[in-house]
Amino acid sequence: MRRRLYKWMGILVTMILMGMIGCMSVILMNYISKIMEDRCFDELHEAAAGLAGDISNQLESDQQQLEVIADIIESFGEVDSEETVQILRQYESHGMMSGLEILFPDDTVLLGSGERIDASKVLSFEEESSLGCHISDKETDLVDEEKYILRHYVPIRQNGTIAAMLYGIVDLQTLPFQWTVEVFGGNASVYVIDGDTGDFLLDTWHKSLGNIIELGTREMKEGFSVNQLSDELLAGKSGYIVFVSRTIGDYLYLYYEPLSINEWRIAISVPEDVVYQEANNIRVVFYIFLAIEAVLFVSYFIFILYSSSREVKEKQKRLNIISNINEIERLLFIAHRKSSKMELALRQIAQMMTAECAFFETAWDDRESKLYIWNGEGKEIEPVWKESGRAGVFQEYFRGGKKELLIYGDQDAVHSGDAIFKLYREARLRNLASVPICNANGAVIGALGIANTMLREIECKLLDSLAFSFTLFYHNMQSYMIAKKMGEIDALTGLLNRNCFERDISLYQQLQGKSLACVYLDADGLHELNNEKGHEAGDEMLKYISGAIQEVFGKEMSYRIGGDEFLAFAAGESEESVVRKAEMIKKTAEAKGYHVSAGVQWTEEVVSVSRLMKGAEQKMYSDKNRYYMEKGESRKSR
To answer: pTM of this prediction?
Structure first.
């Protein structure tokens, strides 16, 4: 459950990270767009300020030129002299001015062609002279009424009074070629607007000059007001605004500020796609990066799922291996007394490694070699290498210092030596793996192996992990054989005797990973029975109780340790199960007219077998005292 939780936590964290990166990407792009927008208005502001300065400089230069010409005309004595007409005719376009004309007090105008016409319906000498040097707002030409111009005036004086007004004609159609800016790659548009009337004096965006008020309202970008143009631009304030252009159907970014000339306003605009051109390039690269990142995240996500699944399978595989190893250790623990347990252990090894055969080769002394085999039939067989002269070939191989033997085919078998190659061919094996079994001193005492496995790569580490258990089996077997020679079976009861019990205590002490219970039993009334009915009756009682103990706890872990005292061990069983078995023995004895006092001490992990036995003994004596108290007899515990 916890592993699943960790796996899904990892997946959830990955998804959260992907979401966070996506949100951060959107925020970052919006931030970049905001930077581009701010930079746009900064550049437009700088361009507007620069253009305003250029316009002022050009007008000042034109005024200086007009003043020089006015001085020359004053020197002629007569304003409308032939020399004056000659100057007007020969004037070539200079600066912003395309021609010169003179306004007289009678509201007549001397044209550049030398013709003098009445302009009283259009111009007023009195008004213009009262203003001195100045430039007019948008007006119509005297000759071509569809032509819009500006008139740049300077006075012509005679005898201390203004005799006429000389003015240069500024053709508004030519201004777009003179008043330009180079920001945004030349894609910006320039406007000069009369703040009093809203008339365009310069408009490089539209094809004709119009009136900003007459253009009507526009759709504004969020955050900008519809009335901002009229409230700020025409009022002489500085600022910027973003609105939808009817010409291109996209946003225009416009900056405006007042000019120092009349009530003019200067403005510069640029389309949104130009403003965000760099940002769009960044956005494309960023989106490509996000796409790559998304692919990597998805790949990582799939990898996590795959790894988690693989990890679960690998952990399950390891748990199965550990479980198999524990089962093999349990079987080998008592295999020295019961040969069938060795057969079961080898079968477990073969199944764990998907092999058809598993074997253990050892030698109990210098003269006798022993080969245990499981070949899929569940019985010990006599293979070709057990014939005369063939025993011990694997032990000999490892005594040469080799750490493992792996054979996948004839070529590997050839390099393993003649003896092993001959066995390999005669037994018709497909593959073979073996590892040495060594004692505490490092001496080779046997070999453990498998043959004909379905694994593509044989893992000798699994066999190595079992080496200690087979080493323990070897020593147990040696001790068992010695004990047999010394005598380990109680002659009367058939149980293991005290010598065997003393020897096996160390084995129980080494038992790890399993619970262990000690059952201490005493046949009550043996002394009285011997006195009343003779020792033969007492022996019959001991045999009967011993048989009950063997029936319940088995022969391999049951002992007679004294005249009427017995011990039995139970490994890997619950405390309730062991107590129930002890009660079964007592009931079996009572059915025959005997009584058995019993004490059970159980531990989940073996720390001290001695303390375990003492605990069981104390409980047995408590049971014995209760028995005699119930009979009304007083008997001291031994």
So the answer is: 0.46
Q: How far apart are CA 203 and CA 193, in angstroms?
A: 9
Average pLDDT over residues 375-382: 53
CA 619: distance to chain centroid?
59
- Angstrom distances, CA of residue 517 to CA of 14, 44, 602, 603: 50, 93, 4, 6
3-class SS of residue 409 = coil
Res 300: pLDDT? 77
Q: Find the length of the chain.
A: 638
Q: Encode burial over 287-305: b for 16+ CB neighbours within 10 A, e otherwise.
A: eeebeeeeeebeeeeeebe
Question: Rounded to whole angstroms, what are the CA distances from 11 to 293, 301, 311, 559?
Answer: 17, 7, 14, 58
Cβ-based neighbours of 135, under 8 Å, separated by 6 or more: 59, 150, 151, 152, 153, 170, 261, 262
d(CA 107, CA 118): 6
Cα of first residue to Cα of last residue in the chain, in angstroms, is 54
Strands (E), 142-199: 148-158, 161-171, 189-194
- The 8 Å CB, 24+ separation contacts for 303-310 are 304/10, 304/11, 304/14, 305/11, 308/7, 308/10, 308/11
Distance, in Å, from the CA atom of 38 to the CA atom of 44, rounded to the nearest integer, reads 10
Token code pair at residue 294: 């998304």
pLDDT value for 379: 43
Categorize the per-residue pLDDT at 422 as very low, low, confident or very high, splitting at 50, 70 and 90.
Answer: confident
Extended strands (E) in 454-564: 516-524, 558-560
Nearest alpha-carbon partner for 613 in 622, 597, 602, 627: 602
Residues 544-558: tens digit of each pLDDT: 999 999 999 988 889
CA distance 521 to 586: 9
Supply the pLDDT for residue 167.
Answer: 93
Q: State the chain's maximal CA–CA distance in angstroms.
A: 178
Q: In what order do the strands lie in the sheet with 558-560?
A: 558-560, 565-571, 516-524, 595-603
State the angle between helix axes of 498-510 and 467-486 in degrees (0 to 180), rounded to the nearest 10. 170
